[in-house]
Amino acid sequence: MAEYTVVKISDVPDQAENLGHDPAAYEVRFMRNPLGMEHAGVTFARYSPGFSIEGHTHNRQEEVYVLVSGRAQALLGENEVVDLEPWTAIRVPPETPRALRAVGDEDAIFLKIGAPNTGPGDGRGVPDDMIDLNLIGWNGWRITFPIFDRDGKIAFFKQAKDPEDKNDGPK
Question: In the predicted model, is pLDDT for residue 35 greater than 80?
Fold first, then answer.
């Protein structure tokens, strides 16, 4: 008999709350381990309208983001915005800063594939002290913080909503 693994995505635990996000706004299900993947990882993600995730890069892992439904934008490199429509795939090499956000009135559903399989710890995020140094970019409801690499170039952005906003959406 052939070797394979079948996993129902809804059976994989949602990790949004464990990552500090509101599960009503963001859903993320890491399927690498349930599928027994050795050389790559695959993740299901749902972004509610307007939701965005913090920018990041990787040490070794390249990623492919497939927008299954909804509309989204990818912020890449030094502030390049790429519009994504359903069934659009975008590959991002490890060192390229990237962030995704849902645009429009419906959830954006992604399948994210990363290789090689590096497990946790390959991604590089934003330390809070760097955020404190770059308080710019207020648009009336969210502030954007540019994050610079060691060469002084913008690596990616971190966003936060108005502290006076009392809704339960993402911060």
Answer: yes
- Cα–Cα separations (whole angstroms), residue 121 to 14, 99, 110: 19, 18, 21
What pLDDT was estimated at residue 80? Answer: 87
What pTM, to 2 d.p., does this model score? 0.71
Report the distance separating Cα 55 and Cα 159, nearest Å: 9
> What are 44's two structure tokens?
């299901």
CA 40, distance to chain mean position in Å, is: 17
Q: Which positions ≥6 away from 126 have C-beta within 8 Å?
A: 54, 55, 56, 145, 147, 156, 158
Helix (H) or strand (E) holding 131: helix 128-133
Average pLDDT, stretch 5-15?
Answer: 96
